[in-house]
Amino acid sequence: MDGKTPEVVVIVDVQADFTEVRNGSLSVPGTDQSYVDEVTARTRTFKDKGFPIVATADHHPADHVSFFTNHPGAKPFDVKRIGDVEQVLWPPHCVQGTPGADLLVPEDLVTRVVRKGIHKDHDSYSGFRDDSGNETGLKSILQDMGATRLIVYGLATDVCVKHTVLHALEEGFDVDVVLSLCRGITPDGTDAAVEEMTQKGAAMAE
Known about the structure:
The radius of gyration is 16 Å and the shape is globular. The strands form two sheets. The protein has a six-stranded parallel β-sheet, sandwiched between helices. Strands 3-4 form a two-stranded antiparallel ribbon. Helix content is about 25%, strand content about 20%. The chain is built from four helices and eight strands, in the order E-H-E-E-E-E-H-E-H-E-H-E. The protein is α/β, with parallel strands linked by helices. Helix 3 packs parallel to helix 4. The protein has a single domain (about 5-60, about 90-205), classed as 3-Layer(aba) Sandwich (Rossmann fold), CATH 3.40.50.850.
C-alpha cells in the first residue's frame, strides 16, 4: 500500500466566525450547534472509511484588503474596485490568532489544514488559489494523496464552496458536493451557485 487514495474529503471554512453557534462576525444562516454536530458526525464517518480529510481555513492578517474597516468611509458589504478586482468589503473575520479563525471540526479528524487569504492584498474565496493566482498548496496536497475525486462541503455554498469546487473542476478533479452539509449566505445566491457548479460538472449529493 502506498497510502494514496482516489477519494479525499475537502471541508471548506467551517470556522467560528462563519457560524451562528459562535456568534461569528460573518455568520452564515443555519450554522447552529446542530449543523456543526452534523458536519462532525459525517466527517467522522468519512474518516472511519479511510478517506483523508483536508480542511481549508481563512487566515487573514488584521490589515486584510477585504475588511471594510481598512477602507476609510466604507460600510460592510460595499463593493470597491481594487486593481482588476471587484472586492466585496466584509466585516473583519478569521483574523490570524483570534478565536474567530478556529476550525470547528475536531482536530483529530483532520489530516491537513490549508490556510488561505494569508496575503493582505489579495482575497481568496477558493481553497486552491487567491484572486491574484497565488497557490495555497491544496492542489499539490491532493495530488500527493492520489486524489481523483473530491467530496466537498462547508461554508458558504455561494462563496467559498462554489469557488473551491469550480477550481477543483478546472484542475481535473471529479467533485461531489454534499449539499446537506453546506449552508449559503442567501437563497438566491445558493441556488445560482448550485446551478453553476452543476453546469460545470460537479455532482450534487445529500
